[in-house]
């Protein structure tokens, strides 16, 4: 009884060439073993339907989950603009994939649609964990997680991320089996003989005084302490930004504004910790768009991080996961890592991945840069997050 996971990636410009190269490598690593699950993350610009059709055709229509991304990485290196995938063959795990639609209009109905198609019990495989990906641009990250908790029940742990699109903020997509979709969620129920481990951490600390959200609608923040959101943000972060060579009074380009906002994010107090919320973009009226709903009346602080704290938090996420699994041989790992960490770490991004590898050892690893991370595990700071690292460890 065993589980084998292999990873591969290609940066070929042609969609077919890229998926072909990745599949040839992964299938060679798997050998004669049948594919039990395919996981794929792909940059913007590829033909996603071609990717799914080809993977399914060449893996015997194995269950598939994945999404569009803002960067991909494996145990070998990180990539920009690639198709990266993992193939798992297992007789100690069972995999069941499903999808739900209309996330923006009704998150609970969307998740209930998805979970209704999952088996309630799998004899011989008592441990259940769900991998969840969703359209990261519909602004329903928090709602998707809360709805999943209701639909799945309080005992099911789950982890995942928000689909992305290389910081274009136009279209993000969910992949389930043969289907490419938007405004949707994708689930993979993993029933296993040993429990899967999940760990989380972020590296942000507050630097502002307490601020109050006085006007917000869904995922758009309009006013802070009765003032325009953008004006407050630039006022509070002006000196910090200047130390990075950013003049907040001259920011015009959407990309430059986005990178400024990613450096200085919203931290909702949850006791001794902060839930991080990243402003994705600015509207013409100075309101700010987030990846999930922003609650009017909530008190927060603007937070920041350093390169060293970001690298240390990645290691802490892996350590948190490993603590919960004990001395168990691992088949592989999945990493959901925020694209905001890439902005902060720049060319040192893979140092964070290397710290994860140092903790979990030389095992296959697949990850993508998200627009939000999901970690719902009892006893941890759980739910929907930004600028964090979520580590999923798959036992042999």
Oligomer: single chain
The biggest sheet, with number of strands, parallel, antiparallel or mixed sense and barrel status, is: 9 strands, antiparallel
Backbone shape = globular
Indicate the low-confidence ranges by residue numbers.
none
Number of domains: 2
Provide the gyration radius in Å: 20 Å
Please state roughly what percent of the residues sit in beta strands, choosing from under 5%, 5-15%, 15-25%, 25-35%, 35-45% or over 45%: 35-45%
Q: Would you tell me the structural class of the helices and strands?
A: alpha+beta
Number of strands: 27
Helix content class: 25-40%
User: Kindly, what is the distance between the CA atoms of the first and last residues, rounded to a whole number of angstroms?
Assistant: 8 Å
The total count of helices amounts to 9
Averaged pLDDT = 93
Which helices and strands occur, and which strands form pairs?
Elements: E1 3-10, H1 15-30, E2 37-43, H2 48-58, E3 64-69, E4 72-74, E5 78-79, E6 83-90, E7 93-101, H3 107-115, E8 127-134, H4 141-152, E9 157-162, E10 174-176, E11 179-181, E12 184-192, E13 197-202, E14 205-206, E15 211-217, E16 220-224, E17 227-228, H5 229-242, H6 254-263, E18 265-269, E19 274-277, E20 279-282, E21 288-290, E22 299-304, H7 307-325, E23 330-338, H8 339-345, H9 349-360, E24 365-370, E25 373-376, E26 383-385, E27 388-395
Parallel strand pairs: 2-3, 8-9, 23-24
Antiparallel strand pairs: 1-6, 2-6, 3-10, 4-5, 4-24, 7-12, 8-12, 9-25, 10-11, 13-27, 14-22, 15-16, 15-22, 16-17, 16-21, 18-19, 18-22, 20-21, 23-27, 25-26
Helix pairs in contact: 1-2, 3-4, 7-9
